[in-house]
Design brief:
The chain is an all-alpha fold. It has six helices and no strands.
Amino acid sequence: MFSNISWGEMVILLVAALVILGPERLPGAIRWTTQSLRKVRDYASGATQQLQQELGPEFEDLRKPLADLNELRQMSPRQMVTKHLLNGDDSVFRDFEKAIPDRQDLLGTGSGMPDYPMPKPEKPLEHNERPPIDTDAT
């Protein structure tokens, strides 16, 4: 439940609670909070068990598509294609990655590709000078 709160944040919350509530009321507040969280968790698990008992085998029919949907939400596009279209065989992607050089090689800073000179920047136009017109491009 509190998996996204770090230890440092927990210490800050504890110090803030100590300042706000004081040392005499803090233990009671912590006890009340833990009991409330435990009750909520028990209610949720009890509701799940009650629903499972009332629906019986139909509960599994309902739970299975939801689990599949949750699995799809956690997959990347590459994992989806690999699993559903390629039956788990990702050799196509591996061969494709081997065929394309690294981006650094394309930029000429890695090994394997020659270094291409960068084009020299043209001088800026003078005041009232018109840019050249390329008749092939127009």
